[in-house]
Amino acid sequence: MGTIGTWERCSSRLRFTIDVPSSTEFHLQLARKGYRSLIYSGDHDLIIPYVGTLEWIQSLNFRIVDEWRPWLLKNQVAGYTRTYSDPRYFNLMTFATVKGGGHTAPEYKPPECFAMFQRWITGKQL
């Protein structure tokens, strides 16, 4: 298989052989196995706006267990978050926006994204 070499953003040299029209079934399979998930979007992402991600999450029919609220870094709003659960499998899905983040949010907001991931991976509330 091999590697590409030097990373290039959105390289036209990459030739994909498989197109996945929807990731919904993959997420539902992982939920059935009890895996938690963190879904995040930069709120300045013009390629995949966060409202589209919210619509996709609604299609999963998970229930809201923690309503919209800001999440903070250094006493400043770093974004907003909501938590979902599938009552059949009790997994939790955390959705978060990253304030000022673009399509590749960690590129635009590294400290915020690191804090978000660190809190999520250790089971702490954003």
TrEMBL record:
A molecular function (GO) term: acyltransferase activity, transferring groups other than amino-acyl groups
Domain of life: Eukaryota
InterPro entries per the UniProt record, alphabetical: AB_hydrolase_fold, Peptidase_S10
An example Gene Ontology biological process: secondary metabolic process
Pfam family, one: Peptidase_S10
Family that this chain belongs to: Belongs to the peptidase S10 family.
Protein known as: Uncharacterized protein
Organism: Linum trigynum
Lineage: Eukaryota, Viridiplantae, Streptophyta, Embryophyta, Tracheophyta
